[in-house]
Amino acid sequence: MKRSEINAALREMERMVKEYRFALPPFCSFTPEQWREKGHDYDEIRDNMLGWDITDYGMGDFDKLGFSLITLRNGNLKMDQYTKTYAEKLLYLKEGQYSPMHFHWSKMEDIINRGGGTVLIRVYHSTPEEELDRESEVHVHVDGRELVVSAGSQVRLIPGESITIYPCLYHDFQVEPGSGPVLLGEVSQCNDDNTDNRFYEKLGRFPAIEEDEPPYRLLCNEYPAAK
């Protein structure tokens, strides 16, 4: 992705967050210049990859495959000094964008429609060989209500609704056409994007960046070392 595309995507998500009156922590407004001055008191943000994020799954077609997000809080199971057992994110999807089929070996999460359009989440059990189980019904939990749906069904979430995604449950998500962009929340166990994502089709995670203009915000994998 071009840096200008990333900058535009982050500004667009900022506008959506403000529209739905979700207040962000101060570190989300730090400029690249401010980050160069931050000391070790901000190591939790660096080590746990808090802050702004963009994924195009390494495919270079962000408007069709990918989305913008912010990790607001996160623990770290690999570093003893961080004892949080939970994480929280905001995700922003436009119409036409898609998050592909995947599951997490360890993480349980609730995906919450915080505002905007309608999100569609397709679900399958995984087989012992980590394939899609195209036969078994799926018990899903939507805001405390248990539903039984057929394999490959899309669960429809309007603003305010949420679904619980258990480990090893394949899921993808996209915006319902015609409903408008969606601001999603994610509340989960600790998040580790480096080791706990199993994509059904092999994909990357972070975009290759073409620097055609200065960064508006640093992404969570771009922070400079502490002074």
Explain how this protein is built.
A hairpin with a 5-residue loop joins strand 6 and strand 7. Helix content is 11%, strand content 35%. The strands form three sheets. The chain has a six-stranded antiparallel beta sheet, with helices on one face. Strands 4, 6, 7, 10, 12 and 14 form a six-stranded antiparallel beta sheet that branches.
Gist of the model:
By secondary structure, the chain is mainly beta. It is built from three helices and 14 strands. It has helices at 3-19, 32-35, 43-47; strands at residues 51-55, 67-74, 86-93, 98-103, 109-116, 119-126, 132-133, 138-142, 145-149, 154-157, 162-165, 169-175, 182-189, 198-199.
Q: Which key phrases capture this entry?
A:
six-stranded antiparallel β-sheet, 227 residues, 11% helix, globular, single chain, mainly beta, 3 helices
